[in-house]
Specification:
The structure is a single chain. It is built from 17 helices and 24 strands. By secondary structure, it is an alpha/beta fold. The chain has three domains: about 240 residues, Medium-chain alcohol dehydrogenases, catalytic domain (Quinone Oxidoreductase, Chain A, domain 1, Alpha-Beta Complex); about 90 residues, Rossmann fold (3-Layer(aba) Sandwich); about 110 residues, NAD(P)-binding Rossmann-like Domain (Rossmann fold, 3-Layer(aba) Sandwich). Helix 9 runs parallel beside helix 10. The radius of gyration is 23 Å and the shape is globular. It starts with 7 loop residues before the first strand and ends with a helix. The relative contact order is 0.13.
Length: about 525
């Protein structure tokens, strides 16, 4: 086995809620027989890193694994850090393999790989395992993987081959772009689950005491007949992950808001449909096949000028769907100006209308057919119902904590035929699709880069994500020791040779090469 790596290396570690620090000498483990040691080329910062920072061991992906791998196996993996163990955040990562165990079959020393962060087959209590959560992530110089973790049940690997002729930043940003893609291409269930656990609740005859014998998160389908808000609030906790609630109002109304598990719409894949009449099939028919935008949609991206919102705007401007009208709202005039500078040429090139608005000072008053929420605030979910056109899709992209509920106007939601979707993370196939677009030069993910740093600036970078100080993605290069958090528009002050390689202010392969050469 190759042993050409240091015994200790630098890493950003999260040791508790809101406790983030740079460890200058974290031990670098020697890989076991089924393990892979890789050097981190680059890691992008994400709003999800902030959620982990705040929740730490309360985050659904920080808890222990409950399926497939037994505890002795898990304990043999040094990078497995569930619950209160310190972890290394960062999941938008490109690595170069430096050592492999004798039994490793899927990679070789020297391979360049893009990390797909979600281990969806390894379940936790309320979600799944993930790189950068209960497994150490990419904000370090060296990271360890285990084949028993990264191979799905079909033996497909989460370490995707990455070409050598693309900048690491563009490859790494395939990960967040894949999460965006997944939220649109997600396939929705339009009927009861065959063989699933189903319950019919007729408000006229159902005895609420029957719910005492139903386990929480056990029902795949609920057919709810009537408009008893108190009873529906008792039913919601019984709905399983990926569960579907069909509310058949039978001409009735709840008459008040209903406490609804908005966090589980995103993290648990729970879905709510319904109809104002007495035909359950009408509720199923209104469910869209996917979360994709549709011809003629009036689209609102809430929180559009942030890193993920910018990606949603670019994606919808360039998707090639005829007749769409894209709006982007934010609370920062400066960030909106930066978004317009980036998006307006794309809108013109694709024949799409694009508008920005200040969310507080001049919000649009006309309803929208598609609303994508980038801000994890439950009140925005409630507001989206009031701003929805008939048949609107409300994409809850921002991850509201899984245990959070909020009062929603389900009368209006059902009357307008609105539909919530929510996805978390991405699949291996999503990553392949986006990476191929990057390889084919059909998508320039570097358009979303706004700042660069080394590990020295990574903590400041995550804090900048928290304060929304940077209007785009922050890319961390662990090899660039001493590089502070540096917005692209300030590069000329300290690294003019790097700034000279920007393209109209945008990050490029040449700029990355110049930066890495400066710190070689």
């Amino acid at each position: 086995m190759n042993t050409d790596w240091p015994k200790t290396a630098r890493a950003v570690q999260l040791t508790g809620a809101d406790q983030l620090e740079l460890n200058p000498a974290k031990p670098v483990p020697e890989p076991g027989p089924l393990q892979i040691l890789a050097k981190v080329e680059v890691t992008g910062l994400c709003f999800s890193d902030l959620k982990l920072l705040k929740q730490f061991n309360g985050h659904v992906r920080k808890s222990g694994i409950t399926t497939i791998l037994d505890e002795p196996t898990l304990q043999s993996i040094p990078s497995y850090v569930p619950d209160s163990k310190p972890t290394v955040p960062g999941h938008e990562t490109v690595v170069r393999v430096v050592a492999v165990g004798d039994a490793v079959k899927t990679v070789q020393v020297g391979d360049r790989r893009l990390v797909q962060a979600d281990y969806r087959w390894l379940k936790t209590a309320n979600s799944n395992a993930a790189f950068g959560y209960n497994f150490e992530g990419g904000l370090q110089e060296y990271v360890l993987f285990d084949e028993r973790v990264i191979l799905d049940p079909d033996r497909d690997s989460t370490l995707l081959p990455a070409p050598d002729d693309l900048p690491a930043s563009a490859i790494a940003l395939s990960e967040p772009w894949a999460c965006v893609e997944d939220s649109y291409v997600v396939h929705e269930r339009q009927a009861p689950l065959p063989g699933g656990h189903q319950l019919t609740v007729d408000c006229r005859t159902f005895d609420p005491a029957q719910l005492d014998t139903v386990a929480d998160e056990s029902l795949d389908d609920v057919l709810f007949l009537g408009a008893n808000a108190d009873l529906l609030e008792r039913v919601f906790p019984k709905v399983a992950k990926q569960g579907l609630v069909n509310i058949v109002l039978r001409g009735e109304r709840f008459g008040r808001t209903v406490e609804t598990p908005v966090g589980r719409l995103h993290y648990g894949g729970v879905r709510i449909t319904g109809t104002v009449d007495d035909d359950p099939e009408a509720g199923y028919r209104r469910i869209p096949a996917t979360g994709e935008i549709r011809e003629g949609d009036r689209i609102d991206v809430v929180g559009a000028a942030g890193p993920m919102g910018t990606m949603h705007v670019i994606r919808n401007l360039c998707q090639g769907v005829p007749g769409v009208d894209v709006w982007g709202g934010d609370m920062s005039t400066g960030r909106l100006a930066q978004l317009a500078k980036l998006a307006n040429p794309l809108a013109t090139a694709n024949g799409v209308t694009f508008n920005t608005y200040h969310a507080k000072d001049n919000p649009p008053t006309e309803p929208f057919n598609y609303i994508a929420l980038m801000v994890p605030v439950p009140a925005l979910v409630a507001a989206a119902i009031g701003r929805s056109a008939p048949g609107a899709i409300i994409n809850i992209f921002a991850g509201i904590p899984a245990d959070v509920s909020h009062p929603l106007d389900l009368d209006t939601y059902i009357e307008r035929g609105a539909y919530f979707i929510g996805t978390s993370g991405s699949t291996i196939e999503d990553m392949r699709i986006v990476l191929q677009k990057v390889i084919d030069r059909r998508l320039d993910t570097n358009l979303s880069v706004a700042a660069v740093s080394g590990l020295d600036g990574a903590v400041d970078g995550i804090r900048a994500v928290e304060t929304q100080a940077i209007p785009g993605k922050i890319i961390v290069y662990p090899e660039c020791r001493g590089l502070p958090l540096t917005p692209l528009d300030q590069l000329a002050d300290t690294y003019p040779e790097v700034a000279a390689k920007l393209n109209n202010g945008a990050w490029t392969a040449a700029a990355e090469a110049a930066l890495r050469a400066a710190f070689a």
